[in-house]
Amino acid sequence: MTEDNAGYLIKLVSSSLNRMLDQEMAPLDLTAMQWRPVAMLYRGRADTPAELARLTGTDTGAMTRTLDRLEAKGLLRRNRSQTDRRVVKLELTELGETKAREIPNNIAHVLNHHLRGFSADEVQQLKHFMMRMLANGSACSSAPER
What we know:
The protein is mostly helical. It is built from 6 helices and 2 strands, in the order ααααββαα. It has a single domain, classed as Orthogonal Bundle (Arc Repressor Mutant, subunit A). The protein has helices at 6-25, 32-42, 49-56, 60-72, 94-114, 120-139; strands at 76-80, 88-92. α1 (6-25) packs across α5 (94-114), α2 crosses α5 (94-114) and α3 (49-56) crosses α4.
């Protein structure tokens, strides 16, 4: 792997973003595994452990352990669904909501740091290229074309 390999560069950027996000979330006492579910609950993107696991790309066991830690920190609570007792619904506590409100600013700080020196047009172009890559990847239901 070298710096002229696009996939390797994407991986390096992702690693750099994640490292800095971990540092930014540390004052909130949230790890990388913890801040994402808190943010998703706050934004209404999910409200069950299964949905959070799917959205974050983690297995349900790892998500359960993460939710256990967040519950122990007083950031969320679990409630059984009234319509289906097998379903556990999640909700943030007041403390969880307070921390969740700080997450977007931390993310913006990290992204702005990585994009410093880029013009607005360059940022738009970068987003356009990434959206095209995502579209290409999602259009592929089998092995990539050769």
